[in-house]
Amino acid sequence: MKPIIEKILAKTNQDTISSKIQSIDWVLFFATLPVIGAGLITMNSFVGESYFFRKQLISLAIALLVFFIFSRIDFRFLRRTRVVITLFAFSVASLLLLFVLGVVSRGSQSWFKLGLFAFQPADVAKLVLIIVMAKYFSRRHIEIARIRHIFVSGFYAFVLFLLVLLQPDLGSAVIIFFVWLGMVLVSGISKKHLFLVFMIGAVSFFGLWHYAFKPYQKERIKNFINPLADVRGSGYNAYQSTVAVGAGRILGKGIGLGTQSRLQFLPEYQTDFIFAAFAEEWGFLGVTFLFVCFGVVIWRVLLNALHGATNFEILFGVGLAVLFMSHFIIHVGMNMGLLPVTGLPFPFMSYGGSHLLTEFAGLGILMGMRRYSRDVHKDSMKNEFLGA
Question: What ranges do the domains of the chain cover?
Answer without folding.
Answer: 2-386
